[in-house]
Specification:
The protein is α+β, with helices and mostly antiparallel strands and about 425 residues long. It contains 3 helices and 26 strands. A hairpin with a 2-residue loop joins strand 17 and strand 18.
Length: about 425
């Protein structure tokens, strides 16, 4: 071996971000003049330096070199003992004349913890929730106990978990839940400040500030909306009694009176007297059929009862038919009038699309009823005032489907005279 080296026996301690030194004695044990290069190796090599980096020695001569340790203030270099090694390379004898010296340096501990509430401020009528993030930027493991404190106990606060262990260069999280002890009914939001305390037996406590903004139960927007709703309801009531109700009554009379007059004419033509009460009821209500009973003394002293107020006698003979959507129209026979009083809409295959029932006259077509197929499977409709289809008009059922129409159809019922 061409080189012999020995380290100082004094222990070496260095604080992160600072520098510490030790010495090493190097002797040329060979028979030739040689140059030796010092190369730090291992995990600690980036922050270990030897000065001078190269020396030349005569045979049996020695020299003392300085080793400097400069670990960075970073979580990448953990606190505690770190082995290091110096490779001494001979330029003359190469590997045969080289050697490696090993030692241990103790790296000190530093604390750099950061706590943050995400979000810092919570809002709610009573409850709030956020996350506590603890970032350990130091070089030693930290076991943190999480507690809270308030100037005034206005909040009930829970922490889960209440104890965290955070490795160097890592982060840990805890859930913070707050609940206001009392309700705030109205007014501006009330702020409830509190503090989250991070305690470690080896380090000074870390305090993180938070706040919960408690909003009123009855906010200004809610009160305004309720007031507007009450005013709108009152306006609708006034509109109904002042405008809509008289209009509906007059339009109902206009629709029903012709049918009632025709009914009275038919009853009179049949020779049945109409009592004054029945006449008044038919003219005013326009909806319920009137039944009249007449008793006539005959040869046998018998009694005859007739009901000329039946709706069929007024509008004609009962009739019903079914039209499949997209099928042929149903034309009213010549000299007849079809009175539509009932419809049954059928969608057994749950098709989707739009169903339209129309009145066709000449080249024009007017829609009487439009409905989405998705709204029904079977749907029946009954009308107080019938739809009229006089001579020259037809009933048509059409459908626009987004997929297969299946068996969409409409069954019609009414009277024809």
């Amino acid at each position: 071996m061409a080189v012999v080296a020995s380290l100082s026996e004094a222990p070496v301690h260095v604080e992160p971000g600072r520098a510490a030194t030790t010495t090493m004695v190097v002797r040329n044990a060979g028979n030739l003049v040689d140059s030796f290069v010092f190369r730090p190796i291992g995990a600690s090599a980036p922050w270990v330096k030897v000065e001078p980096a190269e020396v030349s020695l005569l045979p049996d001569a020695n020299v003392t070199v300085t080793i400097t340790f400069s670990p960075p203030r970073s979580s990448d270099v953990a606190a505690g003992a770190h082995p290091y090694a110096i490779r001494i390379v001979s330029r003359v004898e190469d590997e045969a004349g080289s050697a490696t010296v090993e030692g241990v340096v103790d790296v000190g501990q530093f604390d750099d913890r950061v706590g943050e509430l995400l979000p810092r401020a919570t809002r709610g009528r009573r409850r709030g929730r956020n996350d506590l993030a603890i970032d350990n930027r130091g070089n030693a493991e930290s076991t943190v106990e999480v507690t809270t404190k308030q100037a005034e106990p206005t909040l009930a606060i829970t922490v889960d978990p209440g104890k965290l262990t955070v490795a160097p260069g890592a982060a840990a999280f805890a859930r913070i839940k707050v609940r206001a002890r009392k309700r705030h009914w109205r007014g501006t939001p009330v702020n409830h400040p509190y503090q989250v305390v991070l305690s470690d037996q080896w380090r000074s406590p870390l305090v993180v500030d938070g706040v919960h903004a408690q909003e009123p139960v009855l906010s200004r927007g809610l009160v305004r909306a309720v007031a507007l709703g009450v005013l709108a309801a009152l306006a609708l009531v006034v509109l109904w009694f002042a405008v809509l109700r008289p209009t509906v009554r007059s339009q109902a009379k206009a629709v029903v009176n012709p049918a009632v007059s025709d009914l009275e004419n038919r009853v009179k033509a049949a020779g049945v007297p109409v009592p004054p009460a029945a006449k008044a009821g038919g003219g005013g209500g326009g909806g319920a059929p009137t039944t009249t009973t007449t008793t006539t003394a005959g040869g046998g002293g018998g009694t005859a009862t007739t009901a000329p107020g039946a709706i069929g006698g007024v509008l004609g003979d009962p009739i019903d038919f079914r039209i499949v959507a997209g099928g042929p129209v149903r034309a009213t026979p010549a000299g007849k009038t079809f009175s539509l009083t009932d419809m049954v809409l059928q969608n057994p295959k749950a098709a989707t699309g739009t169903l339209t029932v129309s009145r066709v006259k000449g080249g024009s077509e007017s829609a009487l009823f439009v409905s989405e197929l998705a709204n029904f499977r079977d749907f029946d409709l009954h009308f107080v005032a019938p739809f009229l289809f006089p001579d020259g008009t037809s009933v048509k059922v059409s459908v626009a489907c987004s997929s297969s129409c299946g068996e969409v159809a409409v069954t019609f019922a009414g009277f024809e005279r």
